[in-house]
Amino acid sequence: MEEEIDLRQYWEILRKRWLIVVAIPLIAALTSGIISFFIIKPSYQASTTLIVGKKASEEGQAAAQMLDNNVLLANQQLAKTYATIAQSRTVEENVIKDLNLPLTADELDKLISIDQVKTTEILEIQVSNTDPELAASIANTMAQEFSKAVIEIKKVDSVSIVDKAVTPDIPVKPNKKLNVLIAFVVGLMASVGLVFLLEYLDNTVKTSNDVETLLGIPVLGVIPNYDIGKQG
C-alpha cells in the first residue's frame, strides 16, 4: 500500500511539471536532428580486400598449399606485418602523390584503417571521407601502392585484390535516427531528474497533505479562497 502511495506521489510530481518533462526531450531531439541532418557532414566508407601469398611452384601443389595449416597460420601472422606496411608513411606518401591530395601523411593516416578479416590471411583496407568517390579512389590506390611495397620488401610472389573499392552510396555516419533517439532518451532522463530536483528544493506548503506530512498531525479544517470583493 505504501508503495502504491509513493508511486502516486511520483506521478503527481511529474504531472505537476509535465511541461518540463515534455519540452526538454523534444528540444533535445530537435536539436540533435538539426545538427545531424544539416550541420554534420556525412562520412562515407569505401573498402578493398586483398590477399598476399606465394604462388605454388607447380599447379598440382596449389590445392595442397591451401590446405596446409602451417602455411595458413604463417600467412595469418604475416597479415599483421602486411597491415603495418600498408599503413606505413612510404605507402601513404605515394598515395598522396598519385592522387595529388592536399593532405599530409598523418592526416591521411587518420582516414585509413587496415584490419585482418577475422582469422583469415585477407587484409581489408577501409577509407573514410566526406567525398565517397575520393574514399574509393584512396582505397584502390592504397591497395596498388601496398602491392608494390610488399613485393619489394617481403619478396612475395603476388598480391591479389579480392574486391576493389566501389563508390559508396550510403554514409556510415552520422546515424541520424539513432542520434535523435539517444537525444530524446537523454533529454527525458534529464527532465525527470530536473523535476524531482525542483520538487526536492521546493519547501513551500501548498496543500493540506503537505501540512500533515510536515507536522505529522491531521488537518482539522481548511479555509477556502474567499474573495470579499465579489460578494453581492
Describe the structure.
By secondary structure, this protein is of the alpha+beta class. The protein has helices at 2-16, 18-39, 61-67, 69-86, 89-99, 105-111, 132-154, 176-201, 208-215, and strands at 44-53, 112-116, 122-129, 158-163. It has two domains: 2-38 and 174-213, no CATH class; 44-163, 2-Layer Sandwich (Alpha-Beta Plaits). The chain is built from nine helices and four strands. The chain has a four-stranded antiparallel sheet with strand order 2-3-1-4. β2 (112-116) and β3 form a beta hairpin. α2 (18-39) runs antiparallel to α8.
For the record, the CATH architecture of the largest domain stands as: 2-Layer Sandwich
Number of domains: 2
Low-confidence stretches: 56-63
Give the biggest sheet. 4 strands, antiparallel
At the third CATH level, what is the topology name of the largest domain? Alpha-Beta Plaits
Radius of gyration: 33 Å
Provide a concise account of the structure shown.
By secondary structure, the protein is an alpha+beta fold.
Question: What is the topology?
Answer:
Blueprint: H1 2-16, H2 18-39, E1 44-53, H3 61-67, H4 69-86, H5 89-99, H6 105-111, E2 112-116, E3 122-129, H7 132-154, E4 158-163, H8 176-201, H9 208-215
Helix pairs in contact: 2-8, 5-6, 5-7
Summarize this structure as a short list of keywords or feature phrases:
232 residues, alpha+beta, Alpha-Beta Plaits, 2 domains, four-stranded antiparallel sheet, 9 helices, 59% helix
